Structures
1.
Amino acid sequence: MTLQLGEKHFSSAQPESAVRRIVTFRVGDRTFGIDVGMVREIKGWQATTPLPHSAPHVRGVLNLRGVILAVYDLRTSIGLGTTEASATHVIVVVDVDDKTAGLLVDSVSDIVDVPVSAVRPAPDLERDEHGLIEGLVLLDTDIVALLDLAAVIRDGGVEQQVAKAARPN
């Protein structure tokens, strides 16, 4: 299963609006979201190749149409242990700071429009302790934590390892 969301997702020619479009996904009983413009595609689980000495939340790398893609286990990033990946899990392929990475999540839920005014700051304790949440949104009775993707992948330590793995011997 692969869902293409487009190359550079939404035109910057759109007028400035007070709405944020987010993709929501689940990890355990928690709901997270990221801006839809950061999502390149959503693909079914594919086994990864582990890299030695990588951070615990780095699942490994995989070949995505000739691009070596680092995959991060979001469950590990948020302190819930390691994902026992199965065919029902998905990888959300994202573009962050001119890098392409994958997030291993349980499932993708929806694409929703959220008023910018509805985004609340993350509690200071959360920011200090983990630094992964940029804001919170209440959707119906569910609280959606908006991820700071740069923070999720920042400490992965795979950039140099991916570059070394890509070099011919």
2.
Amino acid sequence: MARLKPPRPLDGADDREAFDCGRDSMNQWFRRHAWRNQQLGISRTTVLCDTETGAIAGYVTLSMGQIEREFLPKAAQRNTPDTIPIFLLGQLAVDRRFQRTGVARSLLFYALKTSVLVSRQVGCFGVLTHPLDEEARGFYRRFGFEDLPHDPRRSMIVRVKDLERNGFAAD
């Protein structure tokens, strides 16, 4: 089991080039865009690092967004505005050296807890993600994410009120 430092914001000095999650698109996004997006305030990337080597074990990215009401399940559409505020869990990846050690789960829990805490100050319906494949969909489904049946991007969402009910609001 990897020994990890607590989650922290990505830093410009972090070695993003050494990160390899096994998916070229995720590696390239992390190397080319994560730091720049953070500087511009577009998204925030949080990393978990190995205590011994300092290597980045994994990262997760959060930003704000919106979804059209029509993409939500019918029951969630009632009495809501045309666009619904959401947190966007845009990226979540774990370096190959740390896969299957609980890093993905830790990063997801960090992102969900952060979303609930921020939602106390800024209204937000849920946390939305765009899984890359069926394996990722299965991972998110285990943590309460549901498919958005009418969304052409095949997004998944978990409602903030469900996260609160499941203990993510605890301090």
3.
Amino acid sequence: MKVFIYPTNSLILYDMVERFGHEPLAIMQEIGKKVRSQGLDSPPMNITPEDPKFGLKYAAVEVPAGVRGRMSLLDPLLTKAEAAIIVNDPVISFGCMGCARTNELVNFLLRGKKIPILKLDYPSTEEDAKLFVYKISEFLKSLKPAEENK
């Protein structure tokens, strides 16, 4: 299955999803496309005229540009998502998604998709961390492998 991970830049979640035979959906994929695409100027000018339209799909013109920009990158991931793992209040080294308004919007959109979602709090003790990994592994085992969904 295609599993959306949030924070979407968490390499730890990306690796776990991949190890359980699923396709992780993370922002690094979308940024990589922007950075490596021929014909686009080097960062930070690596957007096309179409990119802002994806952000406007989710947020009005009055909404801060950062929200629209993040949503333009998250749009392809949210569209493909067949399941999701959401970690609340992670530390910055785990994969911070520093915009509260984008976080709220992403959670709202995922709930509306009616897909399997695992929501967890970031662990604060070693025991919590073990339970955290266990819950993620059980969730991923419960999903159909990516090969079966093709």
